[in-house]
Design brief:
By secondary structure, the protein is mostly helical. Helices cover 70% and strands 1% of the residues. It has a two-stranded antiparallel sheet. The longest helix has 36 residues. It starts with 11 loop residues before the first helix and ends in a 7-residue tail after the last helix. InterPro entries: AA_ABC_transptr_permease_3TM, ArtM/GltK/GlnP/TcyL/YhdX-like, MetI-like, MetI-like_sf. Its main location: membrane. Pfam families: BPD_transp_1 (PF00528).
């Protein structure tokens, strides 16, 4: 009988067949990549004068400003989504039915609406009432993107934290109530810290999604990284063609680097938390005190009793005690 529950271990022929399929698939992928590179090279996309465009100061400044704008939107939207997600998760677990229904409706509404529609609707709203919204109206593109990302990702983070709440053993919650803790204390001191710790990889993964979704700002003409790259590609002509391919390669590499840095930070935080959890020093248990007159298992003769003391005990009248 095979030791595997899901599938049987492949035999020699199956392993050889899998190796052949792997080699063929790898060769096909490498061949496709080589074909694409050759076609791009034939069209002059790898020519030195095309890539020298990125040596100009104005091009570097445009890309740098796009990166800073993207990171600014991500930092604010990510922080707001975490705060909003925690509030929604706590209110959804409320004992009050009305509050619980409101939180559930908010979460389901913004999870169901496409993010692009939310951002575009907020942008149109801010443009329409620009004079009545103060500083929001003056920066309508920025706030439409930030608020749209915050409400959508906040709804998703709320569901992530709710899953973390459900993962906490029920016995811990019952023990906390038995100790006299209130619902708010149980939520803030017991459920929320454990939910964040257990769901940290998923929370960081959703933050990576938030970072990538900042590229939707180009739809509302907000000057984030993708919009800056699009403007650069549309206005730069080298050897009779626009530099779309080099710009896509550079900007794609920047996005990949930012997402990998955020994922690396998540991995580091998770390992640090695991190391701190497992590195707690435990005090050695003290040796039990030996009771007077206790039997020593290593002594076959047992405890010795003085003969005079035994005779005195025998001569004592009944009822007399020390």
């Amino acid at each position: 009988m095979s030791s595997s529950v899901l599938y049987d271990a492949p035999g020699p022929k199956a392993r050889m067949r899998n190796r052949i399929y792997s080699v063929i698939g790898t060769a096909a992928i490498i061949g496709l990549i080589a074909f694409v590179i050759m076609r791009l090279a034939d069209r002059g996309h790898f020519a030195s004068e095309v890539w020298n465009t990125f040596n100009y100061a104005n091009v570097r400044i445009a890309i740098r400003d796009g990166i800073f704008t993207t990171l600014k939107v991500f930092a604010l939207a990510g922080a707001l989504s975490l705060v909003l997600g925690a509030l929604l998760a706590v209110t959804r677990a409320s004992d009050h039915r009305a509050i619980r229904w409101l939180a559930t409706g908010f979460i389901e509404l913004f999870r169901a609406i496409p993010l692009l529609i939310t951002i575009y609707a907020l942008w149109v709203l801010f443009l329409t009432y620009k004079s009545d919204l103060g500083f929001v109206g003056e920066n309508n593109g920025f706030w439409a993107l930030v608020i749209g990302l915050a409400v959508y990702n906040g709804a998703v983070q709320a569901e992530v934290l709710r899953a973390g709440f459900n993962a906490v053993p029920r016995g811990q919650v019952e023990a906390a109530y038995a100790l006299g803790l209130r619902k708010s204390q149980v939520m803030t001191m017991l459920l929320l810290p454990q939910a964040v710790r257990s769901m940290l990889p998923t929370i960081i993964s959703q933050l990576v999604v938030t970072l990538k979704d900042t590229s939707l700002g180009y739809i509302i003409t907000y000057a984030e990284l993708l919009y800056a790259a699009r403007q650069l590609a549309n206005t730069t002509l080298v050897n009779g063609q626009y530099i779309y391919v080099p710009v896509i390669m550079v900007v794609g590499t920047i996005y990949v680097a930012m997402c990998m840095a955020l994922s690396g930070l998540a991995t580091w935080v998770e390992k640090r938390g695991r190391r701190a959890k497992t590195g707690i020093a435990v005090a050695a248990a003290a040796e039990p005190a030996e009771a007077p007159g206790a039997l020593d298992p290593s002594d076959p003769k047992g405890p010795t009793v003085d003969a005079e003391q035994a005779a005195a005990k025998a001569d004592e009248p009944p009822g007399k005690s020390d």
